[in-house]
Design goal:
This is DUF4233 domain-containing protein. The chain has five helices and no strands. The chain is an all-alpha fold and about 130 residues long. It has one domain. Helix 1 packs antiparallel against helix 2, helix 1 packs antiparallel against helix 4 and helix 4 packs across helix 5. About 25% of the residues are buried.
């Protein structure tokens, strides 16, 4: 039986999944523009991609969210080499903050409804 994923984990995975594509393409752009030595560009891009994957895999825990925030901040910092990353990174940071805030709000609402409606608990967990 599969574990049920929370809303935070689902939304975070979606945001990070799209960001993986952007990070890969940003790495290729930085490499093509010769913004820095190739080893630094490829190594930095690979580091960000691996960090995003780690964040996706650990989103069920609170520290996974913080790793996701680190990915967002580092994506903005990548704007030093590819200036459009300032804008793209800021957009992804805004999306990340909104997704995490919305997920927390929905989780609190679900918990409140489950606590206030005992019949809801019986239909979700039949015995």
């Amino acid at each position: 039986m599969r574990r049920e994923r929370g809303i935070r984990e689902s939304l975070g995975s979606i945001v990070l999944g799209f960001e993986l594509i952007v990070l890969f393409l940003g790495t290729l752009v930085a490499w093509g523009l010769h913004s820095a030595p190739a080893a630094i560009v490829i190594g930095g891009g690979a580091f960000l991609i691996v960090l995003a994957i780690i964040a996706m895999l650990t989103l069920r825990y609170r520290y996974g969210t913080w790793i996701g925030f680190a990915v967002q901040v580092l994506a903005i910092v990548a704007g030093i080499w590819v200036h459009m990353m300032f804008i793209v990174g800021a957009l992804f940071l805004a999306i990340w903050i909104y997704a995490m805030y919305s997920a927390d709000k929905v989780e609190r609402l679900k918990a409140s409804r489950a606590q206030n409606d005992p019949q809801l608990n019986e239909t979700e967990n039949p015995q």
